[in-house]
Design goal:
Largest sheet: none
Number of domains: 1
Helix content: over 70%
Shape: elongated
Strand content: under 5%
Number of helices: 7
Radius of gyration: 18 Å
Distance between the termini: 20 Å
């Protein structure tokens, strides 16, 4: 179950990357495809998704390391940076966190570098989806079905467990 949540986090991370890329390219939120029904999700879909998520986990770790390194090259501690980013994404926290002028300046200066790291990770994630033999819409539909249907989650866990035991995967 722990692995499922770890992989689900990677899946959500990947879906956010892809959505952000599409948003940046179109400057408007693309319509999300309808999730597949549990009957439409094949074992092949789930195997591909498992493979994509494993690659995505490495992409995520690499991006996080690069972002941490970039932040730590400034005068700001990474934990403080995370706190600031969380407060900016959560409207309930926005008014509770006070930023110094130095912190505001550091955030503004580092933002282009972080955006570049994010874009590289997005491109790598998109490439992983394509290399797995899946198109973006199918990936999104299967990912949504995985989150929406417990029976799909159970099948995914079973397939993902088999992939972890198979030394060739």
């Amino acid at each position: 179950m722990k692995n499922f949540f770890k992989l689900t986090t990677t899946l959500i991370f990947g879906a956010l990357f892809i959505s952000a890329t599409a948003f940046a390219q179109q400057q408007m939120a693309p319509p999300q495809p309808e999730p597949l029904s549990p009957e439409e999700v094949t074992d092949e879909h789930l195997t591909m998704l498992s493979d994509i998520m494993k690659v995505g986990e490495g992409i995520q770790k690499d991006a996080e390391t690069k972002m941490r390194d970039a932040v730590e090259e400034t005068s700001m501690e990474f934990s403080r940076f995370e706190e600031i980013m969380m407060s900016q994404q959560n409207p309930q926290m926005a008014g509770q966190l006070e930023l110094t002028e130095d912190e505001q300046q550091t955030i503004q200066e580092i933002q282009p570098q972080l955006m570049q790291i994010n874009q590289q990770a997005q491109q790598q994630y998109m490439q992983a989806i394509q290399e797995a033999g899946m198109d973006l819409q199918t990936f999104q539909q299967v990912a949504q079905a995985l989150q929406a249907h417990p029976e799909v989650q159970q099948r995914f866990e079973a397939i993902n467990g088999e992939n972890e035991e198979d030394p060739e995967n």
